[in-house]
Amino acid sequence: MGESPMLSIGEFGLSTVTSTSPTVFDEQWTSKNLRKSLKIVVIRNEENEIEFDLIGVHPGLANTFRRIMMSDIPSMAIDRVEILSNTSILPDEVLVHRLGLIPLKADPRLFEFKTEDLEEKDDNTLEFEIKVKCTSVKENTKNSLCAEDIYKNSNIYSSQIKWVPIGNQKQRFKEKDIEPIHDDILITKMRPGHEIDCKLLAIKGTGKDHAKFSPIVAAFYRTLPKIEIIKEVSGEAATRLQKSFSPGVIDIKNKNGKNIAVVKNARYDTGSRNFWEYPDLKDTVVVSRVEDHLIFTIESVGALKPDDIFRESVKYLRDKCFNLLQELNS
Q1: What's the DSSP call for residue 92?
Q2: Distance between terminal CA atoms of the chain?
Q3: What is the pLDDT of residue 193?
Q4: Phi and psi at residue 222, to the nearest 5°
Q5: What is the pLDDT of residue 282?
Q6: Residue 11's pLDDT is what?
Q7: How far apart (Å, rounded) are the C-alpha atoms in residues 38 and 30?
Q8: CA dihedral over 47, 48, 51, 56, signed as positive or negative
Q9: Whole-number pLDDT of residue 1
Q10: Residues of the chain with pLDDT under 50
Q11: Which segments of 87-215 are extended strands (E)?
């Protein structure tokens, strides 16, 4: 294996340098090579966000997963609104748009896609209703002028959207499984005499149809930073070097009575170039990027876990490849 390309960050731009460590750019892409080089390391996995290292893959493949998650992994969203009454200050079309963007807690894998020629059924549609009227409070015991104290239902929130089971949905799902993900999304403000009465129909869709169907808030990746201190930096200069990078990147250790700057964790670097401002520091550090080591972050809207969204994107790409091979061989 020969030398491998690595992206180097210079004072006035980017350049490609060589590295003795082999990367996926050195060999022809095959499924066998991918299985040999691919490695996934989960750094943190929270309720709605996951960060993991995708090692040994071309950035193009990582970008494929990112685009699939954005555009091709389905979720449930309000698609049609039947307005029975709307005397609020919001025009009908603005109200419908706001309702459609409220994320719903519902597993899309348990539903089928609905086409225009299909009627609403329990396997392809969720029905909700919002029926709220603003009235004056009879007795203002707080002697307050705040709208929340003198009016009832002055603020309309997503928590007031109620699920209406159709077919056998009541047996299939619990009430807590079908509801808006966040109950504090403000829909509109009302005053006495204002009323909203709507029937909401949610269907399964994908982000390429409308952004409201995308199951993710964000999906992005960056290459792993590589920082090397090639000349000893000590004393006051070590402190300046530490402050030139993000917290946690550079540490200062005592060696033979001297404070020496060492690299602690390069992954926390955000592309700092501050050390180039100091003539005595700019030749002591080499900053580069490991091009086949990607730090991937996925933030879910909440209907699906972020790790499930990534798995679904892998399955989607696999099925697309199988379908292409079948077409080529037929």
Answers
A1: H
A2: 38
A3: 92
A4: -145, 155
A5: 87
A6: 62
A7: 12
A8: positive
A9: 40
A10: 1-4
A11: 104-105, 125-133, 135-136, 151-152, 155-157, 162-164, 179-180, 186-189, 195-205
Average pLDDT along the chain:
89
From CA 126, how far away is CA 169, in angstroms rounded? 9
> What's the pLDDT at 2?
42
Measured CA to CA, the distance from residue 301 to residue 308 in angstroms comes to: 12
6-45 tens-digit pLDDT = 666 666 566 666 555 556 666 677 778 788 888 999 999 9
- 199 closest CA partner among 127, 100, 97, 116: 127
For 280-327, the DSSP string reads: TTTTTEEEEEEEEEEEEEEEE-SSS-HHHHHHHHHHHHHHHHHHHHHH
- Coil, strand, or helix at residue 41? strand
Beta-carbon contacts of 221 under 8 Å, excluding residues fewer than 6 positions away, are 54, 59, 62, 63, 66, 294, 295, 296, 297
Element (H, E) at 251: strand 250-255
Tokens of 190: 């009302």
Q: What DSSP assignment string belongs to 152-178?
A: ES-EEEGGG-EEE--TTHHHH--GGGS
Q: How far apart (Å, rounded) are the C-alpha atoms in residues 31 and 281?
A: 44
Angle at 65 between CA 61 and CA 67, to 5 degrees: 110
Per the structure block, which two tokens stand in for 231?
């000349």
Q: Look up residue 10 and give its amino acid.
A: G
* 195's tokens: 């009323």
Residue 36 confidence (pLDDT): 83
What is the reported pLDDT for 221?
95
The pLDDT value recorded for residue 3 is 45
Please tell me the distance from the alpha carbon of residue 44 to that of residue 52, in angstroms, as a whole number.
Answer: 7
